[in-house]
Amino acid sequence: MTFQAKLALRYMQGRKLRTTLTLIAVMFGVMIVFGFNGILPAMEQALQTNLSAAVEKVDLTITSESRGAFDASAVTLVRETPGVALASPSLVRPLLVPTAQAVTAADGTAITSFILRGVQPEQLAELNPVSLADGRLLTDADDHSVLISNNLAQQTGLGVGDTLVLPASTGLLTLEIVGITVGQPPMGSEELIAPLAAAQTVFNLPGQINTIEAKFAPGSDAQTVQQAVLARLGSGYKAGGNEAGSEFATAMETGRLVLSLFGIIAAAMGGFIIFITFRTVVIERRRDIGMLRAIGASRQTILGMILTESLVLGILGTALGLLLGALLAYGLLVGMQPIMENMMHARIGGPSFAPWMFVLAIGMGLGITLLAGLAPALAATRVQPLDALRPSLAEVERRAAGRSAIAGIIIVALAFLTLIAGNVGLAALGIVLFMIGLALIGPALIYPIARLFGRLLSLIFAREGQIAQGNLTRQPGRAAITASAITIGLALLVAMGGLITSLIGGMDGWIAKTLGSDYLFMPQSLVLGGGNIGAGPQLVEQVKTTPGVSQVATLRQTTAKIDGSDLQIVGIDPVTYPQVSGLIFAAGDEAAVYQDMANGRSIVVNGIFAAQSGVKTGDTLSLQTPEGVQAYQVAGIGGDFMNYKIATGYISQANLAQDFHETADLLIMVNQQPGADAAQVDGALRALSRDYPAFSFYSLAEWKTEIGKSLAVFNAMYVLLIVLAIPSLIALINTLAINVLERTREIGTLRAVGATRRQIRRMITAESLLLAATGTVFGLLAGLWLGYILVGAMNLVGLVFPFSYSYAGLLLAIAVGLGFGVIGALIPARQAAQLDIVRALAYE
Amino acid sequence: MSIIKTEQLTKVYGKGATAVTALNGLNIEIQPGEFVAVMGPSGCGKSTLLHLVGGLDKPSNGRVLLDGQDIFRLNDDELTQLRRRQIGLVFQFFNLIPVLEAAENVALPLILDGVKQNDARQKAEAWLARIGLSDRLTHRPDQLSGGQQQRVAIARALVAEPSLILADEPTGNLDSRSADDIALLLRQISEEWNRTVLMVTHDPRIAAHANRIIFLKDGTVVDETRLSSNGHQEEMMVRQKLEVAR
Ligand SMILES: Nc1ncnc2c1ncn2[C@@H]1O[C@H](COP(=O)(O)OP(=O)(O)OP(=O)(O)O)[C@@H](O)[C@H]1O
Ligand SMILES: [Mg+2]
């Protein structure tokens, strides 16, 4: 073992408490990054109902780049490509059926989640041979037939000759079961195989498909043929199945963004704690280091010693972190199972850890530890031999504090610039810059703040408060480190809290405005991006004529192509829609926009689309429609709650009918007349909804509870917050404990000259409170600002919601900050009070 | 050639009104193998002198020549190496590494110099034996008495076999018997092993062990005495001179 390693190990053994706390800090960072990443694949998999199962037999699968549906005519293009022997179209989508149509299993559970695979029967036989357990395959003559898996048959007792009722745009579609297939169903959902036309009816996508499977002629070069096919199809298509679970993928990306944000913040937090710890280590060992230098240790030796120690801690902490991360992942998945089952109709598998996650977690654990250890280690090399002989360096520290404060202000200013720059990556970098800047400014501000709070504190702790204040201002560097631990921890908590509050508040606002009608008819299986089952005109007519109903507005939906990719198009009535509900605009004058829409081909695009494509008000979009390419003028930027996550354009229903031939109502919003008998209107509409099983009916109150359930997911983020709060507590205890350790001799002297245990305890507590108060003030300010940055970053990617925070949250943050101060002081204060005077005086 | 030579050595701490002149154009010269004690009232610049000679601090003016070499011409690494190989330092407060055992503390300078662990350990144990601590090899500093800790520090100063030992009040924390032991040890170092020893002390009894005593006041040499052999008479003389210097 080298000398450095030996010294490092000895120091670690000699300071068990500190070593343990540092280890926990490293471990925590790694655990969070590793654990969270480990559950993501399982979550994704659960959400991505595996659409293209059993495709081994085909040579090529073609899907749309936007994961949406496309015109069936593309099959002809594929077929015509030289080298292609067979090409078969299919429409494969998840299908959620209303409870009324659910199939009941023997154990009583209702099965509502299916994958409906619409195929051309004769090609199914050749391309994707299906083995049968019973009955027969589909033939071209079938139009209302379906194959179910023997798994489903066994569970439900359904067999050949029975019927299955599915919701469709025209009401209900009854299919006869003609065969039972053998084989494993794709994850989470049962597969139903039906004729393409039936699937198109169910999904209201006449003439549309979303998958082409092809087989190549014998002897042809697969690579060449695939290229030829893609070239012939033009842009907008890709080779490969829809593994990325079509529409859910978009929602997942949002979730991934939020989780990665947590990951980054957790990593930054871990790094900061380690940094703080090693800074304190260097201060604590100033005399030892100076002595080593005096007897001939070179700067490199000192650097090596500190880095070795951080490396050892890094390795140990990382190993433990990986272990606990895996446990965390298992725990979280088990805990989330009921929620997922409930909301997504999906089963979750276990966590999975890809090699890159190990690389990331280990790289982070070791990398951050070394990096965080580097600056303090370099500081250690600057310790002079004379420092072994002279105790205090307050004077020097204060001057250095002034210099680093200037650097800090510059860095914070840079962080602010990254926000203005309007780039998400830069904004994330800005957060890191901001934290570094804050740590640099801290020492310069400790003095005035300690004085300010010190005065308050001396009202409570008359004598000890004075001493405590003196202790802090004497060594501003050390005090600043402790205070900044609280600051950073609290800032992150306040920021994330602010983000979550803003997100939930923003959603509430969006819901109130865009879905705030008295009653709602909503499709049970609302699938974003198209393919829903809408209602024909009769439903709206019936709703309108229901006594007590004043206004009715509907949303219609289809998909257009723009530059080869899909854009969801929502049709609204420019007159009734603003009366009942309304879009939330980020750009454009509301009244004028609706006027434009009524007058001609005007479109409002939502934030996500605007962010992705850089489209501005006044631009012209060339939309590919069934009526050819049509030019739509962008009248404004805005959106509604339902579609805020996916690229959407809003046009008038008149244009939708004219250019897209789409007239089915997807969502019906109803207001009742003032003074009408609510119970009566509610009853009449509810009765009406029973004839349309594809729709759920909600009163405003019901709808709010329903939405509340899905927003409850966001509340889970508060739990993550608490998880993040623990590291700051550790950092705090760590720094306070080191603080006390370092002053062992001083405390011994105080005791020797007559300070009671109680006075020592009160002195340390007063000191901690002072630090906590200081840290809390900074933490609140920094946190609010950081939250603002985070919300800004979200806005940049198109998730537009205003920044808000709750006073209760701020009060809580203050309580947490001060509470941490007291808790963080408990252990060290006890330790200090219990010091054996003789030993303390002998302490080197 | 003299082993230590200072030329117009001046050290001023601070600036402006609060500036303190700790050393004021000091000229001293010490020959190899000499055992020199530095005495003088508190604040006269004794420690400052030792720090400058040991290359721990930089002078405001003047030079320090060790073996004819101006040590402040050296860069930090060269100076560090010089301290490691040529100079042994002993402080008033013992400055042992608290987490290392006695033998490990003594072995430090060798290990820092790249000597193999086993060799370093053997030498360290040999030195501890010579100063009578062979039964305390594996004790940590907090398990040793003050006198024992100081002897460990001296063993550490000697282990690299430097030609020059600098000791700042090595007996300041010790009872008179331990102090005598240390003084005798330092004398033995210069007499038997022919090392140069420069020691700061307040204690005339200890100073009486030296070959020569330099009296400082306000940063300059005010008197100098050569001693032939140690004894009561010499101690009395030193006391007198101290009174005069005061
Ligand atoms: N780092 C410093 N900054 C400012 N002044 C200093 C510093 N170190 C020493 N001094 C001053 O320089 C003068 C000489 O100090 P020095 O430590 O050399 O005295 P000394 O002779 O060793 O005293 P003592 O016998 O008390 O140890 C003193 O007046 C002291 O106040
Ligand atoms: Mg001194």
Structural class of chain A: alpha+beta
Cα-to-Cα separation, first versus last residue of chain B: 33 Å
Give the CATH topology of chain B: Rossmann fold
Total number of distinct structural domains of chain B: 1
Q: Report the sheet-strand fraction of chain A.
A: 15-25%
The protein's oligomeric status is heterodimer
Q: Give helix % range of chain B.
A: 25-40%
pLDDT averaged residue by residue of chain A: 76
Architecture overview:
The complex is a heterodimer of chains A (844) and B (246). With 844 residues, chain A is an alpha+beta fold. Chain A folds into 4 domains: 1-48 and 249-393, no CATH class; 55-244, no CATH class; 446-515 and 710-844, no CATH class; 534-693, no CATH class. In chain A, the strands form 4 sheets. In chain A, strands 1, 3, 6, 7, 8, 9, 10, 11, 13 and 14 form a 10-stranded mixed beta sheet that branches. Residues 48-56, 242-250, 392-396 and 527-531 of chain A have low confidence and may be disordered. Chain B is an alpha/beta fold and 246 residues long. Chain B is built from 8 helices and 11 strands. Chain B has one domain (4-245): Rossmann fold (3-Layer(aba) Sandwich), CATH 3.40.50.300. In chain B, strand 5 (61-66) and strand 6 form a beta hairpin. Classes of the chains: A alpha+beta (844), B alpha/beta (246). Bound molecules: adenosine-5'-triphosphate (ATP) and magnesium ion. Magnesium ion binds at residues 46-47, 168 of chain B.
Q: Summary?
A:
Chain A has 844 residues and is of the alpha+beta class. Helix content of chain A is 59%, strand content 17%. The model of chain A is unreliable at 48-56, 242-250, 392-396 and 527-531 (pLDDT under 50).
